[in-house]
Amino acid sequence: MANGSQYDILIVGAGAAGLMATTFAGRGAGQTANVAAVDGAKHIGAKILVAGGGRCNVTHEVVTPQDFAGSKRNQIAKVLKTFGADDTVEFFAGLGVKLKREDTGKLFPTTDRAKTVLDALLSAVDRANATVLNEHRVTKVSRSGDGFTVRTEQGDLQASKLILATGGKSLPKTGSDGLAYGFAISLGHTLTKTTPALVPLVLPDGHWLTRLSGLTTDVELAVASSTGKILHRQSGSLLMTHFGLSGPAAMDISRHWIAANLADPGSHLLINFLPGKSFDQIESELVALTESHGGAGITSVLYDYVLRRLAHTLVAEGAGVEPTTAMAQLSKPQRRAVVKALTALPVPVVRDRGYLFAEVTAGGVPLSEIDLSTMESRKCPGLYLCGEILDVDGRIGGYNFQWAWASGRLAGLSAAIG
Ligand SMILES: Cc1cc2nc3c(=O)[nH]c(=O)nc-3n(C[C@H](O)[C@H](O)[C@H](O)COP(=O)(O)OP(=O)(O)OC[C@H]3O[C@@H](n4cnc5c(N)ncnc54)[C@H](O)[C@@H]3O)c2cc1C
Asked: In what order do the strands lie in the sheet with 59-60?
């Protein structure tokens, strides 16, 4: 039972997963229990507020384990099925937050304001008879008897049960700086290698694609091994920037490019500017067009395939062919160079933009160390983990929050009734 610094359930981290865990721990534990979340941040919920460009993409209409990477998909599925996208919609409706579906399938609050989501979560915590203590940065967590001692900058707190919801390392100024991985390790866990994910990719200074800054186009990206084996494909919108590649397609594939390069530094990224079309298909189309329109310039022919600004640059820089060359004058190697630039352009990514620009962290505590029916640690009884600290990362579209809601709810509820 509680006194000032003694808690039945203490949640470390009051982000998306932590607020959800706190709400469900409070609801499940009943009026007499002492449930609180501690967070180092002065203002709670910074990451929720910046999410989805300030609109907060709360979830996606269809969420499947295939939308995630990291731990095994069947492990991720076990948690997702306890609280799906429909449950998220119903949960937020119960808090007075209506969600709307956009054409992409992403769900946002009808207010288009992330603050609506954060305010609702904070009032849910309040109504669940739980509290959030801000400016309580935790520096150490240790076992004491059957419970835990949590060292904060404001003094030590005791807890019978502990939930770690401290996030990863992305956007560290919001408070998730990775220190808390050490808490999980000190309580017996391991960590799969952490890297930025959902992060823009950097090209060499002055690379010709950076001169197309501002251009957005649908592409298929592929990560190929040094032997040319395709390891991962990703379709979506690509944004050229002054430093390299951004937009959903580049962000989604970034974790796969990073993982491939750690294992095999010869791995590389290929862009297909004609998603769904192969080298052979486009080559035969250009051969046919040479017969019917031999006098047409190659660049103007490509206007039917890609944006004009892109056509010119792809021919000149991507294929190394004079852009005004008539179709009939193209040598076979030149024609094939154009087709390659269109369908499998190798791009020399030099690095990712790092945690300052990453939306999430890949890697973390592996799900194999968690009882997935409760989110309780298999290494340390009484400890629960949820959210991004775990080795699960979703693609762009509301999947990361869905993981936070589902795993946070399960951890909170289980800690309350376990
Ligand atoms: C710019 C941006 C936009 C995004 N947009 C979306 C989106 O629209 N949809 C989507 O699904 N996902 C989005 N994401 C990803 C999503 O925000 C995260 O996956 C999600 O917030 C993870 O929730 P979490 O609670 O696990 O971690 P966090 O939200 O990172 O919360 C962890 C909390 O723990 C606290 N903490 C950490 N260490 C300590 C410590 N030592 N002591 C005390 N407190 C500590 C932190 O202050 C923080 O409040 C976005 C991310 C970014 C960076």
From this structure: 59-60, 106-109, 99-101
